[in-house]
Write a structure and sequence with these properties.
147 residues, alpha+beta, Aminopeptidase, five-stranded mixed sheet, 5 strands, 22% strand
C-alpha cells in the first residue's frame, strides 16, 4: 500500500498536455495526430461517455486512466503510472475508482479492459483484481492508420 500523499482527481481536456506527458513517460503508444490528438481528446471528453481520472502527488500527475462506457459495459483504457511511482498500488486505486464509478454511479455490471499480451504487469494487475481472460478475438477497422 502506498504511503505517499495521493490525491484522486477528475481530469479535463485542458489537462491534455499533462496526460500526454504521463502516457509518454509510461511508455504508452500515443497517436497524437489521430485519436489521441488534442481535438479528438476534447471531443471524446465532451461526449459524456468518457471520464478521465488521475492521481497527483504534490500537484504532479503520476497515474491516469481513461474510463468509457457504452451504456452496458464499462471500459478501463489507457491506464498508465509514472515509472517512478510504480509498485505502490496506484494502478489498483484507479481500477477501484473505475469499478466504483461503473457500478455505483452508472449501474453497469460488466467492466473490461483490453491489454496487449506482452504487457505482463497489466495482465497481472487485472487478473489479481478479478478480471478473467475470455477467449475472444479483438478486430478493428480503421478509416486511417492513425485513427
Amino acid at each position: 500500500m502506498s504511503l505517499i500523499p495521493l490525491i484522486l482527481c477528475d481530469l479535463h481536456a485542458a489537462e491534455y498536455d499533462d496526460i500526454l506527458a504521463l502516457w509518454q513517460r509510461a511508455g504508452l503508444p500515443v497517436r497524437d495526430e489521430g485519436r489521441d490528438a488534442p481535438a479528438a481528446f476534447a471531443r471524446q471528453m465532451a461526449s459524456g461517455l468518457q471520464r478521465v481520472i488521475g492521481l497527483r502527488v504534490d500537484g504532479k500527475l503520476v497515474a491516469v486512466a481513461v474510463l468509457t462506457h457504452d451504456g452496458r459495459k464499462g471500459w478501463i483504457n489507457r491506464l498508465a503510472v509514472d515509472p517512478a511511482y510504480r509498485r505502490q498500488g496506484l494502478a489498483r486505486r484507479l481500477v477501484a475508482e473505475a469499478e466504483r464509478w461503473f457500478a455505483i454511479d452508472l449501474g453497469l455490471e460488466v467492466w473490461a479492459a483490453l491489454i496487449e499480451r506482452h504487457n505482463h504487469a497489466s495482465l497481472l494487475l487485472f487478473e489479481e483484481s478479478g478480471y478473467g481472460q475470455p477467449d475472444v478475438a479483438y478486430v478493428s477497422k480503421r478509416m486511417r492508420h492513425d485513427a
